[in-house]
Structure formats: structure tokens, C-alpha cells
Specification:
single chain, Uridine Diphospho-n-acetylenolpyruvylglucosamine Reductase, domain 2, Uridine Diphospho-n-acetylenolpyruvylglucosamine Reductase, domain 1, Uridine Diphospho-n-acetylenolpyruvylglucosamine Reductase, domain 3, 3 domains, four-stranded mixed β-sheet, globular, alpha+beta, 299 residues
């Protein structure tokens, strides 16, 4: 581990951290330590780091805002690649743009409002990066990223690539982006609207999100996808699970598809609740809920 860290320090200008607590980097505030934690500044540094990690056989994951992610209590023994430095933005007169994969979606939306660019305003408040939103085809209201996305720039162990929307195969909360690629940037094309109208929509969406999802404690957003024709929160609520607690984790009393960290929650607490929800909903309704979150790391 120390030898790999030393080599990465030769490649990267930023810090190479050993044993960094991942709870500091997830919205759930849960997660054990990372073997290595790095933040490449650009595509070139990222490619060099991935090439080295591949050569030495070390596993790795990409991490943006740490939403929609549960890291187990044993942490992740490989390298965690934080995309937070990949935040460049290029806007063009024709309504197109190229934005970094590590850029928070909310920051992008605010820039779009200023420029009168429409297409993402209903996603206001989503705690994701552009890269994560592309991989998951994040959506809210009547919009999703697929509505403005033209393609993504990826980097893997063999170098950079560009994938068009057709190849991405965007669908509900999913895409064809493989786990050994990192989205470094997205090519977008927006519609036009007045900044005043866009700002009003953003304000309304943020208020609605606070009212419906303002659970007041660390969380990872919706835990389960909505099955066709159903709302996951209602299925969970109808099974009497609202407020159910295991250790420091609780099914939110305000939004039943959220699991909150009341303080000191462990990943094992959250996983126990997820398992209970799946089993009870399946037993009472015959519907199998599919998690929207990713679970990684060692127990």
C-alpha cells in the first residue's frame, strides 16, 4: 500500500491519503476507511492513476458527492478516486455545454438559470455530481439528465473515450457505463427560457423537496427505485415500517423511502433495515423493491 501511495504521489499534485475515513465523504456519514484516497486534478492525472492501479492490481471506485452510496463498516481496501476537482464548465452560444463530471448538479443548474438555459431546473436540490447523475440518469419531476445529455467523456485504464447517448442506453436510474470507467465530463444541449422563469421553478422545486424530503438527518436520498406503477415510499409506509429503527439508523418518519442516520449509525444497521423492507414489502404486496443505492466495501 505504501509503495503504491508513493508512486501515486509522483503522479498527482494533490494529497494521497491512507486510511481516510469515508464517512467524511458520504451524505449518509457512514463508511469505514479507504485504503487510498486520491483527487486527480484533470483527465491526464486520472488516466495515469488508473493505469498504475491496474498495473499493480489494486481495485478502485469513483466517488463524487457520496450520495446514493453506502460504504460498509470495514471500508474499501482499494483506492477511492474523488472526482471533486473535475469541475470545468464551457458554455456555447448555441445552447451546448461541456461540464466536468465532478461538478455538483446544483452548481450547474445555477449557471443555467443565469444563462437562460432550460432542461435541468426540476432537478434542483439533487445531491449529485454531473458524472454520477449521468451514470444513474438522475431525474426529478418531469426531467432527467437524458433530456439534455448528448454524450459523456470517459476515462478507463486504457485511456479516454467518448460515448454518445445511444451507446449509453439511458433508462430509469441506469445506464450502460461500465464500472471500470469514470465520467470526466458531459456534453449537454439545453433549451431556452427566461432566467426569471427558471429561477422561479428552481425555487419551487427546492421548497417542495424540503417539504417532502427535509428529513433533518444525514441520508442518501431515496433508497429504493419506484416499481412501475407504484411509489416505493407508499409501499413501505403501507407495510407499517415508517419510523422503524435499527441501531443508529431509522426509516424516516417523514419520508418512508429515506433511511436516516440518527447518530452513530453503522452500515450494518442500514443494511438490516433494507433487508427488512424488501422482505416485508415482498410478503405483503408481491412486489420486489430494487435498491437505488450502491453498496460497496467490506463488512
Amino acid at each position: 500500500m505504501n509503495a503504491v501511495a508513493a508512486e501515486l504521489r509522483e503522479i498527482l499534485k494533490g494529497p494521497v491519503l491512507v486510511g481516510e475515513p469515508l464517512r467524511l465523504h458520504t451524505t449518509w456519514r457512514i463508511g469505514g476507511p479507504a485504503g487510498l484516497f486520491i483527487t486527480p486534478r484533470n483527465e491526464e492525472e486520472l488516466f495515469a492513476a488508473l493505469r498504475l492501479l491496474t498495473q499493480v492490481g489494486m481495485s478502485w471506485i469513483a466517488l463524487g458527492t457520496g450520495s446514493n452510496l453506502l460504504i460498509r463498516d470495514g471500508g474499501f481496501s482499494g483506492a477511492v478516486i474523488h472526482t471533486g476537482a473535475l469541475r470545468d464548465m464551457e458554455f456555447h452560444e448555441d445552447g451546448s455545454a461541456k461540464v466536468g463530471g465532478g461538478l455538483p448538479v446544483m452548481r450547474l443548474i445555477r449557471q443555467c438559470v443565469q444563462r437562460g438555459l432550460a432542461g435541468l431546473e426540476e432537478l434542483a436540490g439533487i445531491p449529485a455530481t454531473v458524472g454520477g447523475a449521468a451514470v444513474m440518469n438522475a431525474g426529478a419531476g418531469k426531467q432527467n439528465l437524458a433530456g439534455v445529455l448528448e454524450g459523456v467523456f470517459l476515462v478507463g485504464p486504457e485511456g479516454p473515450e467518448y460515448w454518445s447517448c445511444e451507446r449509453l442506453d439511458l433508462r430509469y436510474r441506469a445506464s450502460a457505463v461500465p464500472s471500470d470507467r469514470i465520467v470526466t465530463a458531459a456534453a449537454l444541449r439545453f433549451g431556452r427560457a427566461s432566467s426569471e422563469l427558471l429561477a422561479k421553478t428552481v425555487k419551487q422545486r427546492l421548497l417542495a423537496r424540503r417539504q417532502a424530503q427535509g428529513v433533518g438527518k444525514p441520508n442518501a436520498g431515496s433508497v429504493f427505485k419506484n416499481p412501475p406503477g407504484f411509489q416505493a415510499w407508499r409501499l413501505i409506509d403501507d407495510c407499517g415500517l415508517r419510523g422503524r429503527t435499527v441501531g443508529g439508523a431509522q426509516i424516516s418518519e417523514k419520508h418512508a423511502n429515506f433511511i436516516i442516520n440518527r447518530g452513530g449509525a453503522r452500515a450494518s444497521d442500514v443494511l438490516t433495515l433494507i433487508d427488512e423492507i424488501k422482505k416485508k414489502v415482498q410478503k405483503q404486496t408481491g412486489i420486489e423493491l430494487e435498491p437505488e443505492i450502491r453498496v460497496i466495501g467490506e463488512a
